[in-house]
Amino acid sequence: MIYDVIVIGAGLMGSAAARHLAEDGARVALIGPAEPALKSDHDGVFASHYDAARITRKIDRRQNWGRFSQAAIGRYAQLEEQSGQSFFAPVGAIIAGPEAGAGSDFIQTAQQNALADGVKHDALRGDALRARFPYFDFPGGILALYEAEEAGWIDPRAHVEAEMLLAARAGAVVHRTEVTRLIESAQAVQAHCADGQVIAGAKAIVACGAFSKAEGLLPAPLPLKVYGRTIAFFELDEAEAARLRDMPSVVYITPNLVTDPYILPPVRYPNGKTYIKIGGDPVDHELQSVAEMKDWFRTDGDPEVGAFLADFLTGLMPDLSFKAVTTGSCATCFTPHGNPLIYHQTDRLMALTAGNGAGAKCADELGRLGALVASGGMIPSDIYSGAFDA
Ligand SMILES: Cc1cc2nc3c(=O)[nH]c(=O)nc-3n(C[C@H](O)[C@H](O)[C@H](O)COP(=O)(O)OP(=O)(O)OC[C@H]3O[C@@H](n4cnc5c(N)ncnc54)[C@H](O)[C@@H]3O)c2cc1C
To answer: What is the domain range of residue 37?
Structure first.
């Protein structure tokens, strides 16, 4: 049998694309492995969504990303209800940065975009900011845009589950295996899989996150820079988690511009422990090859970056009480134009990747756009601007 579309990569974007295609009536196969039980001895591919929380918000300095998120967030409730999977914690989010001087374009542009798109928010500074969020010690001159509603964090694993469940309900067939090679012929694209299967589709969408660069998948190189990222997890006891129960997610450009950390409020992880998470590497650490990516994912990140992030968080939250700090690794992939890659390389083969560090919250919209382009449609230029190809 030849499917209408085979989607390679059962991650955030791939699962969403498979759902949209299947619900639009296409015959779809979604091919991708499940999360490995143990990262440290895993030989296969990894994903950037193996975590319990990703920030979600509608305000963004980059208008396209704000709009991807506005569209996706608008469908969260429906996705949760139809799938029975709860993945959204609407605890609110702030985006903060210097209001004047160096680096102020970040928050100024974010606010202009919020106003242009009618995104509800409170602009907080000085005493008002301190009174609303007494546990943060922001320096003077910071403007924080607070989205109290329809922002917070999502559980990316549960989001993928929700999309996959609905894709399967609409007829998509899920194959839990890696694709080792794609071969295009005049009739179809064949996906040769690690478990020996060959699955054919009239079209194939490569949605393998950072691993979309792997040899044998797409015929032309992707303009994708992959960076290894370190995250620090602060373990909290029940009392501290309760004290911080109304803490929002935070994205922050610091006045000295040394770093742009993001912070997740207390989230209970599958191991039963509750963590505040911080990320934001001060220096980019590029991963050149698939072998380097796999090596990186098998680690717990860079301890020096972990120490830097820990220092930063205890500076911003001086009263924070925690039991332990641990670190983890992940990878993000960026394009030179800052947009995701959603384009055909040949008539049958297309790319759907490049979250630019922001692809979790809006994955359902990126998946919808991927499905649209695979079906011969165009990304609407009255909503989204710029290039989505190489
Ligand atoms: C530390 C960190 C923090 C982040 N924080 C945020 C945040 O707060 N908010 C936000 O919106 N975004 C955030 N992101 C970004 C977000 O997680 C990514 O943009 C998102 O995961 C990208 O989705 P994706 O589907 O492209 O890739 P992935 O989620 O990586 O999924 C790719 C899938 O492809 C599969 N795959 C790979 N190779 C193959 C193959 N050969 N055959 C079959 N399957 C294959 C993998 O198994 C995986 O399931 C963060 C990323 C990191 C690393």
So the answer is: 2-50+156-222+336-374
Tell me, using a 6 A CB cutoff, whether residue 179 lines ligand 1: yes
Going from the Cα of 207 to the center of ligand 1, the distance in angstroms, rounded, reads 9
Which atom in ligand 1 lies closest to the alpha carbon of residue 153? 8
Determine whether the shortest distance from the Cβ of 54 to ligand 1 is under 6 A. Answer: yes
Looking at the domain assignment, is residue 64 inside a domain? no
- Whether the model pTM is above 0.85: yes
365 in any annotated domain: yes
53 Cβ closer than 6 Å to some ligand 1 atom: no
Can you tell me which atom of ligand 1 is nearest the CA of 361?
11
Q: Which residue's CA is the closest to the ligand 1 atom numbered 35? A: 9
Span 142-184, pLDDT tens digits: 999 999 999 999 999 999 999 999 999 999 999 999 999 999 9
- Looking up residue 241, the CATH number of its domain turns out to be 3.30.9.10
pLDDT tens by residue, 53-104: 999 999 999 999 999 999 999 999 999 999 999 999 999 999 999 999 999 9
What are the strands, taking DSSP E only, across the chain? Answer: 2-8, 28-31, 54-56, 88-89, 93-98, 122-125, 142-147, 152-154, 173-175, 179-184, 189-193, 198-206, 225-236, 249-252, 262-268, 274-279, 285-287, 324-334, 341-344, 349-353
Do residues 182 and 42 both lie within one domain? yes
